[in-house]
Write a structure and sequence with these properties.
By secondary structure, the chain is an alpha+beta fold. The chain has 1 helix and 4 strands; from the N terminus they run ββαββ. It has a two-stranded antiparallel sheet. The longest helix is centred in the middle third of the chain and has 16 residues.
Length: 93
């Protein structure tokens, strides 16, 4: 069975923003964790994976400057307090 993912967006990278609210809707469930042994876990429901895919598409296709970033806590809510996860554009590598 073929399935198709389509994410059209207005490129807002010149404004330093994504085309949609960085706070996910209530139906989106995403969880990130780093275990004591250093393993990174990223889990999500279906809506969460599609939400993450949209973010990846916009960061990959947009014209974001190196260093553009946003912070999320372990439940993918905006945060600048530990523990936090940083999502950053780095085109130098």
């Amino acid at each position: 069975m073929k399935k198709k993912f389509r994410h059209e967006f207005e490129d807002c990278s010149q404004n330093g923003t994504l085309s949609f609210d960085i706070e996910p809707p209530d139906e989106v469930k995403i969880k990130m964790d780093v275990e004591q042994d250093g393993n990174f876990w990223l889990s999500a429901n279906r809506a969460g994976w599609l939400y993450l895919a949209g973010i990846c598409v916009e960061l990959g296709l947009g014209e974001y400057e190196d260093g553009y970033h946003f912070h999320k806590d372990k439940n993918f809510k905006s945060s600048e307090e530990p523990p936090e996860f940083l999502f950053e554009v780095d085109n130098t590598k």
